Amino acid sequence: TRGPGEPARFRCDAKHVVLYPLVSKSLRNIAAGKDPLEGQRHCCSIAQLHDHYSLGYPDLDELQKNPQPLIFDIEVLKVEAPGSYQQDPWAMTDEEKLQAVPLIHKEGNELYRQGKVQEAAAKYYDAIACLKNLQMKEQPGSPDWIELDQKITPLLLNYCQCKLQCEEYYEVLDHCSSILNKYEDNVKAYFKRGKAHAAVWNVAEAQADFAKVLALDPSLRPVVSKELRSLEARLREKDAEDKIRFKGIFSQ
């Protein structure tokens, strides 16, 4: 048993590390904040090895073609007791995922209130990933699938709010449209999609979404009116700029 700061070295023959390129790719995905199994099929390890002509890293491709003995230098950074830290979603059991979602959601809300929008979006994404992973194991349209989907929807709307503030409008359009394909009366999805449409100059689509918001919830008229006035002001400003630009072209 080694404590923090104590290094250890292990040498492994090639026959014991033939699958290491796939393991290394997963570790690199984890370091980049991605799913460690991203891009892999659901099959055995040997099939994975033959299925991946390229792992996306030249050094791993070479090691996969020509397995070599490897030396691993391992250093213990710190020792944490079980339950004293939050696992990444990919490492959780199904029960742990379900229990973690409300906590991750709460963390996202707190980060958003602090103005840390990117960090909040990452939390919402993690919570959605937990639920999506569980949902994949259910029959689409079944009661359990629908229950999970209804938990995903508010998280996805929070994620879209973050993306609106980060000016990633096309991602908002995609996610809100996916929600509305299933829940046609979701006012928040129409409103956020309307704002995204307005931001990318889809004027007719924005007006249609804001009209739908009013039809579903007339009490939101002051908020919708403000958005429409902002859109009209931007359109007038854009028209004025276009006239100046075109006038310069035609006067040459």
Automatic annotation (TrEMBL):
It is found in: Cytoplasm. GO terms for cellular component: cytoplasm. Transmembrane segments: none annotated. It comes from the Eukaryota. The keyword Repeat applies. GO terms for molecular function: peptidyl-prolyl cis-trans isomerase activity. SUPFAM superfamilies: TPR-like (SSF48452). Residues 4-76 form the AIP/AIPL N-terminal FKBP-type PPIase domain. InterPro entries: AIP/AIPL1/TTC9, PPIase_AIP, PPIase_dom_sf, TPR-like_helical_dom_sf, TPR_rpt. Keywords: Cytoplasm, Phosphoprotein, Receptor, Repeat, TPR repeat. TPR repeats lie at residues 187-220. The keyword Phosphoprotein applies. Its main location: cytoplasm. Interacts with RET in the pituitary gland; this interaction prevents the formation of the AIP-survivin complex. May play a positive role in AHR-mediated (aromatic hydrocarbon receptor) signaling, possibly by influencing its receptivity for ligand and/or its nuclear targeting. This is AH receptor-interacting protein. The lineage of its organism: Eukaryota, Metazoa, Chordata, Craniata, Vertebrata.
